[in-house]
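#structure-requests
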Amino acid sequence: MQNEISYQELVQFLRGVAGFREIDPTVIETRIIPMLSVVTYQTGDQILRRNHDNGTLYLLRDGQIRVEVPTAGEPRPVILKAGAILGEMSLVSNKPAAANVFAHTDATLLTLDVETFRDLMQENVEMTRSFAFGMQGLQQGRQKRVAVQPLQDGGQG
């Protein structure tokens, strides 16, 4: 897995992520990409801890992550792949993380801190609209996945 991601790869990746698709490419190139950090996780590493504060938006660049959503007291794992967004609900609601999140495979994530995220949202109405619309679709998709696609049979999801 590469630690280095080219500028053009970042632009292409962000153009395919919910919440970023409709944002002006100039905003992506000049305001968002310079603020991103690249973080790698090894299989099994914990990324988010349920009920702990989260000050980061995570974008899954490659690999897989496992989200353990509590359901009737038992975690119900869901596997997310490249393009998934994590931590967005904490940033918007100022609430702690709602799930435990682990690297299901080695994974590369792009991160954006909460202050930068909020500044960008305030500066750019187009980004706010795009992100809100993208998050609505993402949340609906997550609810469906949690309801119908739990991790089974040793992690083949």
